[in-house]
């Protein structure tokens, strides 16, 4: 039986509820779904309900905290066309490419070198996805290193997360618990510490930006051709656009000749929130 180019039934996509979508991994999947131009609808889940919803859907956690406890997070994609449930952003991209290879804008994983490495010199509060061995292992390693690079700078963003007022207090309490701090105000980064972290972000983006200079014919790593590697970075750019103070986001867009501003704008064609 031939692989269908498009699903006949709409899929269900689960994201974390915010006033403005701002979670990077769900953004990677949203960009991939729109890239593939498949039918889906979104369910926004309040952060305090994520663990329950994931358990109720029967989707195992895909990551663990350093102490071995389960890390329940989103996205989740449910495809009724194949009775599939996928609970990891990278797995969702691989699933879409495998199941619907010719849909939308085409190939999510075209061959390309992705020689970028970032290793933080301190432990991160949120566990990262482990690289996967397989057909797209270079993309998987790139995903891990990009996640590490941006996660190391989420201190600039966390305080400004646009929580849904209906669950804001409980969401902040969960962040406080996970981070082991005393109150939400401990997340506010300001003064000299913030300036140092912004400079660290600028330098990190300089290293990452070198990959985008190999083909300057367009905003993507492969010039005019978008790939999942661009969507990985785009997920984090969407988090920054929703959380950084306005002037800092403008600065990020302009750094290094405007590489990341052009990438963000180039991905807008895949950024519809459905």
UniProtKB/TrEMBL annotation:
PROSITE patterns: GST_NTER (PS50404). InterPro entries: Glutathione-S-Trfase_C_sf (IPR036282), Glutathione_S-Trfase_N (IPR004045), GST_UstS-like_C (IPR054416), Thioredoxin-like_sf (IPR036249). Residues 13-104 form the GST N-terminal domain. Coiled coil: none annotated. This is GST N-terminal domain-containing protein. It comes from Mortierella alpina (Oleaginous fungus).
């Amino acid at each position: 039986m031939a692989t269908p180019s498009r699903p006949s039934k709409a899929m269900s996509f689960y994201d974390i509820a915010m006033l403005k979508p701002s979670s990077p991994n769900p953004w990677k999947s949203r960009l991939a779904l729109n890239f593939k131009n498949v039918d889906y609808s979104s369910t926004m889940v309040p952060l305090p309900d994520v663990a329950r919803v994931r358990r109720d859907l029967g989707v195992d956690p895909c990551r663990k905290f350093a102490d071995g406890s389960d890390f329940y997070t989103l996205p989740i994609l449910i495809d009724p066309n194949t009775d599939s449930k996928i609970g990891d952003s990278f797995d969702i991209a691989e699933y879409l490419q495998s199941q619907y290879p010719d849909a939308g804008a085409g190939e999510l994983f075209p061959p390309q070198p992705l020689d970028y490495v970032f290793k933080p010199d301190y432990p991160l509060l949120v566990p990262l996805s482990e690289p996967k061995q397989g057909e797209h292992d270079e993309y998987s390693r790139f995903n891990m290193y990009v996640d590490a690079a941006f996660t190391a700078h989420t201190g600039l963003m966390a305080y400004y997360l646009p929580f849904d007022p209906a669950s804001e207090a409980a969401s902040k309490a969960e962040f406080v618990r996970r981070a082991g701090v005393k109150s939400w105000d401990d997340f506010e980064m300001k003064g000299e510490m913030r300036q140092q972290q912004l400079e660290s972000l600028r330098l990190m983006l300089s290293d990452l930006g070198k990959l985008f200079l190999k083909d300057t014919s367009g905003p993507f790593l492969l010039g005019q051709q978008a790939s999942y590697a661009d969507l990985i970075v785009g997920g984090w750019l969407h988090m920054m656009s929703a959380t950084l103070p306005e002037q800092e986001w403008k600065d990020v867009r302009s750094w290094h000749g405007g590489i990341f501003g052009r990438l963000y704008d180039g991905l807008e064609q895949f950024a519809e929130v459905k």
